[in-house]
Amino acid sequence: MNLVDLVVILLGVAAAVRGRSRGLLAQVFELGGGFLGLLAGVALGGRIADAFTQDRGLNGLMISLFVVFAMLSIGQTVGYYVGHRFGKAAHDVRLGPVDRGLGAAFSVMVLLVTFWLVGSLLVGGSPSRTLAKEVRDSAILRATNAVLPDPPNVLAYIQKYLDDSGFPQVFTGMPPISPPVDLPSNAEANQAIEAVQPSTVRIVVPACGGTQLGSGWVAAPEYVITNAHVVAGGDAVTIQSPSGEAGGTIVLFDPKIDIAVVHAPGLGAPAIDLDTTEYERGEPGATLGYPGAANGELKVHRAAVQEVYNANGRDIYGRSEVTRRVYELRSPVRQGDSGGPFALPNGSVAGMVFAASTTDGRIGYALTGAEIENKVARGTRRTAPVSAGRCTH
Question: Which residues share a beta bridge with 343?
Fold first, then answer.
């Protein structure tokens, strides 16, 4: 139990007292009206925000939330008025004690469901990792999450506004918690780094009103593998490698798994093998990438497999649900690292980095070699350009 649990318990006591005084019928009708208002607000909020601003940051969020809460309030007001009339009728026929007792229980239940929704939203997209971790570690939230299904898809739209990392959502519900694993020795990590460093590249894509930056690795001569969210909305791609620079064309784009293949004629960087073996907890290696600004340097980190999951998440646009086979790595991941390799001491690539934990800065996620094997094989045989979809923000 942590501070979040204590706050929820105190709110639960207050909710029970308030629910008893208001009764069940008034609350049910108020909730029903509020739910209908919420549905209307969610349906209209994003559209109204898009009509007033192209900003998917704070301005868009504020407009969307204003519409949602306005419609919610209207629905609650109408519902409470109707429910209050029915409640008075129940008291007139001496059902008041039953109405009050059920009202207390109902109010606590509503609080728990609300906490489940808000908690899932914060864990999946809070700008503060500290807050997200506290909420994730809540015993009440985990117990509630074990009983209730994954949060509804409408939350994904709001999470897009809250989370500006650019990473796709790895888990639709609560992210699992696995115990920390030991990092490899410097010697093991250096073996992986030295073998893969010449083949690790920076991706530069002018797109979506700016410049998108990411990382990638050479899987076949003149073919680079990266994430779909790195190149989404672009067409002209520049590949910067230790051996030189080359222009590239996107020949495969999969927004669900989050993989793209770029054909870069003239790129002299050597190719490295993709290892499709699924490695278990403790497997040592290293992650490589180009985080930060366009002139940033290659950053390397010791890494180890902490767990392997069938992760039920969402595509790069936050719309469709998708299941990916992913490694949870003990390795930090920052913006710009996307598409970089998770390399092994034997010189092969076992996975591709694509996201960071929303609750722990020491944890990143990589698509396993087996997950991307077919896409890599298909993409490295193509030369014709394909569409890179629309912008993710």
Answer: 286, 349
What's the CA gap between 290 and 25, in Å, rounded?
58
Domain count, the chain: 2
Return d(Cα 125, Cα 281) in angstroms, integer.
27
Q: 318 and 165 in contact (C-beta within 8 Å)? A: no
Does 197 map to a domain?
yes
Position 116 confidence tier, pLDDT thresholds 50, 70, 90: low
Residues 108 and 220 in one domain: no
For 141-165, the pLDDT digits (tens) are 777 766 666 665 555 555 555 555 6
Cβ atoms of residues 265 and 218 within 8 Å: no
Distance CA 369, CA 279 (A): 10
> What is the rounded distance in angstroms from the CA atom of residue 353 to the CA atom of residue 328?
10
Whole-prediction pTM value? 0.71
Asked if 250 contacts 275 with a C-beta cutoff of 8 angstroms, the reply is no
Residue 138: inside a domain, yes or no?
Answer: yes
In the Cβ-directed half-sphere of 264, how many Cα atoms lie within 13 Å?
A: 34
What CATH number is associated with residue 376? Answer: 2.40.10.120
Q: Are residues 205 and 123 in the same domain?
A: no
Distance, in Å, from the CA atom of 311 to the CA atom of 198, rounded to the nearest integer, reads 31
Domain check: are 356 and 224 in the same one? yes
Q: Are residues 225 and 339 in the same domain?
A: yes
Least confident of 16-30, 142-156, 159-173: 142-156
Cα–Cα distance measured from residue 116 to residue 140, given in angstroms and rounded to the nearest whole number: 9
Nearest one of 276, 146, 139, 260 to 203, comparing CA atoms: 260
**CA geometry: angle at 188 spanning 303 and 345, to 5°?**
85
Q: Which residues in 221-283 belong to E strands, given as ranges?
A: 223-226, 236-241, 244-254, 259-263
Quick: pLDDT tens for 362-383: 999 999 999 999 999 999 999 9
Q: Are residue 71 and residue 188 in the same domain, yes or no? A: no
Domain residues for the domain of 341 are 177-380
Q: How confident is the model at residue 358 (pLDDT cuts 50, 70, 90)?
A: confident
